[in-house]
Predict the 3D structure of the following.
Amino acid sequence: MAGTGSSEIVHSTAAQYAPYILLLPMLAFPVILFLGKMYNGNKMWKETLKEGGLIALAVMGASLALSLWLISDFIGAYGGVEKLSDWTWFTSSMWNSGVVTTEITFGFGVHIDHITVMLLFIASFLCLLINTFAIGYMNTDPINDNRNHRFYAEFVLFCSGMLGMVLADSFLWLFIFWELMGLCSYLLIGFYYERPSAAYAAKKAFLTTRVGDVFLMVGLAVLWDLFGSLDYAVVFNEYNIDKVAASNPGTLAWALGLMFIGAVGKSAQFPLHVWLPDAMEGPTPVSALIHAATMVNAGLYLVARMFPFFGAESMHGELADLAFIIAAIGGTTAVMAAAIAFVQHDLKKVLAYSTMSQLAYIFTGLGAALYLANTLHWHEYLVDGTKNPDYYVNHAIVIVAFGAALFHLFNHAMAKGMLFMASGAVIHEVHHAHHHLHPHDDDHGHHEEDPEELLMLANYLADTGQSVFGFFNSIDLDQSGEIDTYEFQTALKKADIADLPPWDMQRLMKALDMDGNGRINVPELELTLGRVHLASLAGDDDHHDHHHEFDAQSMENMGGLASKMPLTATAMLVGSLSIMGFPLIGGFWSKEGIIANTWRVALEDPRFFYPALCVLLGAGMTGFYMSRMWLKTFAGSPKTDVAAHVHPTNTWIKTPLFILTFVSLAGVIFASMGFTHWAPDIEYGLMSDHGGLWGGFLYEMEHVFANEKVFFFILTYIALFIGAVVGPGLALSLYGGKLDDGEEAKPWFGPVLALNAAIKGRYHWDNSAFGKSGFATALENRLYFDHYYDMAMLKIVAAFSNKAAEADSSVIDGTVKTVERTSQQLSTSIRSLTTGSARDYILMAALGTLVLFGLIWGVVA
Amino acid sequence: MEKIEPFGEGFVLALAPEFVLVIGLFTLMIVPNLGDAKFRIPMTQVRIPWFLGGKRGKLDSDPRLPGLFATAFFSLAFVLTAMSFVNGMNRIQIVSGDNVMLQVDEFSRMFELIFFGALALASAASVNRIPATSRNDRSASGLYNNRRQVDFYVLLITSGLGMAVVALAQDLFLLFIGLELASFSTYVLVAFLKESKEGTEAGMKYFIVGSVASGVGLYGLSLLYLWSGSLQFSELATAFAENGMESLPLIALGMLLVGFGFKVSAAPFHFAAPDAYAGATAPVAGVLATASKAMGVLGLLRVLLVVASPEATDGAAVWLVALAVLSVVTMTWGNLAALGSTNPKRMLAYSSVAHAGYMMAAIAAIGALNWETDHVDLSNDAALVVVTALIFHLTVLVCFKLGAFLVLSLLESEKGGHTLESLGGLAKRDPFLAVAMFIFMMSLAGVPPLSGFVSKLLVIMGIVKVALLDVTVNSDLSLADLHWVWYLALAMVINSAISVFYYLRVGLVMYFHEPEEGREGPLPAGGPVRLAILACLVTTVFFGVGAGQLIALAESAANALVGAW
């Protein structure tokens, strides 16, 4: 949506091509899908074009090139807002409300400012790398054969959703692309839809984020009502904000709060975080895409986009509470997710919780920055037009606070993208090694296994204490001694096991019906159910192992991989260090900034002590779980024979890891370039100049390690101690150990492994007591959030929806059915007038003529 | 405005697209007859090559030749028409003495674009689709086939010429002649499949009812002539403004309404239309639903807005109530009847009746405008918006309605397309056709961002604009303040909601029903048809997403009409 004029609009050549950044992937979506359908199984399509992977790679490459052009153009030539509203659909004044009185134009425009540029780079860069990774990951797994085109098609659509959301010039388009991403996340998480767990995870992700989306939609509606437009040009216009602030600042706060709930859902923050760990059911490239490049960043982007409201002088102090809520939600999630990550065995789940925790850092940082922007007088001129005496100091504070959050977004995206891809490489290779060693129980094989439904049925009977015979009698309605499919289905529905997922009757019947006569009798049921129940009891001690499958994602099956996959281990190490905030690497620069700024606010407003303590504690926890993950995977001796036979991975997978390792290592360069001062507002230049790269480096070093303010000086070292010494130290003493004899590791692992071996050998700590404690169990069960959510769903929502369904079928459906029946009857009687005889037609025409004359005559007379 | 006498300087250039069609007509008649015939001068042995007849070559006896020729000539005419928009339209009048006969302006050219575009697509889709009766003698069969094709396309071209005359005419009599030329061609086209009983019967009925309607219209015409002594639009408009409330012109107006009502298939003059659509081949039915309908609307616009101009009467136009009632009855009738139709062609026919209702509602809204002196500017603006919406609607209708008929024509070539169930499983049999058909249906139902949505939105917005014209801005709005034409928009919305039911049902059948027995295999290839469908598909989407340009074009056309009042 492009709208009413704004003064600081600039058009540049690069901006003219900006729409193609999202259009190219969007157009690639149908192309890949159709070609994939048409040439499914074709050798050229499969091997040369990688089932569409190369098409996707080409468009993502083009998107990145265009993005880089746009960004360099933006940074080099002009630091203000660029806008392109070339494409207009239509214009109308019919929907005017709020402060807008001119005509509203519907169309698509591109809005480019500092925040856009940052997110645009992250999204387009990581999408390309993940695409490269995916070619190496997806196309080498036989389970994906002949359906990778679906993956790539949905992948590019997802990317175009993110790119569109970042580039859009109005909240309406933001919302549209936001929802497009929601759809694609559903499709991609459920890529292996034949697995019930994947289908369930996809639904969960879609519905949980949808809860937030509803609030976002309401928030946008309120915003529309206030401003009469959702265009950035209108809503960010200072004059308009002043007008709204003068009349109803409280409503604006509510609108932003509701929008924030949408961000909470999308970025998986407490209490809408439950979808994210399950989203690991999707293929690993999807995890990387969701967790690094796109979806979770969307929520952060939305909150960052709200900055002009917080920064407006006329809203001074009005939004401080909202800023606190944002920071508090962030702080809570940071600690909670980190704690859950302590006990996860699944490699990808650790990363999932880590994502949640790190996003929470960014939210806390944004909360602090927004608080500062809202409570400090940081504009050059005050409301009354006089020069602001504190302008220079306050402005720097706000910019640094905002910059820290945005820079952490950047660092986290790069590191987490790499971590996910590295974990994918590990899983991929472990899986292949397993496949190589144990071809007979390939977990994707076609051996007959008991359907899950059967197990549920068996468990249900065991739980309720019913005998098989009693159960059979209760469902054998006609007492014939045998039940057929239909009877069985009805009976199961009637029996009180409706909370179990939908039954695949065909599979169930097939498993139960031993003699193949299409009906089940008591012995059949008894034999099968008894067998299944026994089998399930035997396997109960390991909940991963119902089907006696090898879990390629569990860290319990890894260990000692550092010598076998050196590049992956290095990437993982660098990524982990970046996430931990290890000095000088990637995330360090931004994390320190977030902690410092949260504490800065805490000194002003005691409420902020809560998030401030959370982020400080979280730093240590991050150090622990990230170290634990690396050590369990790569250090020590292999825990299974599979892990001992892992081989290095292929080039498609290695390339992005290699690139991202350097990006994460180069954090210090980005910091020196002034990324820590990423300005939220167009009033200021993009990069603050501290005398070139070297000057910037010195400035940053001094700022971080030798801060002149005593408080921050001490704080830095406390944070460093907790995050880089205590947390990792604990992990080093508990996990990992020396590599097996004869295993050569790269020299740079030497210090880590030696330290690990030394500490572990010295302390011999045993945490099995903790592992058995109730708290650990609670953490393993994700603090029972899912459980209580499910309960609430079942008790409240399901009951309500049952009532609603009743009302639906009798009232709404009833009405619709009546309308339909009546119109069909009308249709029949009307069509019966078309007799097929020309005589009747002429008669009707004559009648019509008479009526016409009557009407004209009526008017005249 | 430039004035040119017939066959005066610049005459041929001014009417270049029409002359292309005339040339096409003769080419079609001559080329397939060329052979090695020789003429022997009597009493001698001298044989002079004569070429007409004899043994024909391989190329000119190809049954696809006439279709390709016709497509080429229609396309050429289309391109020439479109070219006249480039660099600004050169408005030209063809005059004979003081009488203006034809007028070339944006309005007429826009309608010609619609006509030629629809006919080009239809003729492309008909290439090699007219079945010939098989005869034992293969060469005779070939000849028969080829000649038959020629007949078909000659009729298409004459109907195109008739439509062009309607678009250009500045004289009611000329307009009527064009109308009849086009109508008679379509009567024969409907009955063209003489092997099928339905075809001949439908053509016959269409002809009879059409003749009655034409007769009534012609009678109205003669009354008008009796009353004013001229059939020139300009003179009729002046006469109407002076004493249009006399009974003679009003009776004539009513009769003309009947004549044009049949052409746009307004209820209750539409009865023959569903039969005709169902009996004709699908491309012909498509032409009836788009180009022929546009011709009827064009006639209505000329008669109601130019001749019996609402401007002439203070307050509402005299035909306002009649047209409003007719439009509501038509749209409701069409939609209700379509609801129960199981023959997709009949369903589309009824849907086209409903569309006629929408368009008449738009015209009626113009009749409600207030033309007092202090209102003229506002009213002009509003009228411009409505006429723009109408032209836009007629244009995009060619994209998706004709497109839908073309999809059916492919089914027809395997003896399907007469029952909804013959579309069953189309998604599996031919995904491209299913997707295309689904998008056409969505567009007909008015789903954004397709062109059908934009056109409906424009029409509704136009009507609402008219209704709101007298309401002062920013006051509390109550329905009583609105002009009652607002209810026309409401009726349109309700009717659109009803229509979604039967449009979606097509999608349901295509995607969720199994193919009928004996129809499991792939559909016949048919390159030209598919190309035409693709063109329809692309434009359906493009004119929705990028509606701006077409709206601008339609607005320039509307300006030529409204500005000339």
Notes: Residues 391-437 of chain A form the longest helix (47 residues). Chain A touches chain B through 36 residues (CB under 8 Å). Residues 291 and 460 of chain A are 37 Å apart (CA to CA). DSSP finds 35 helices and four strands in chain A.
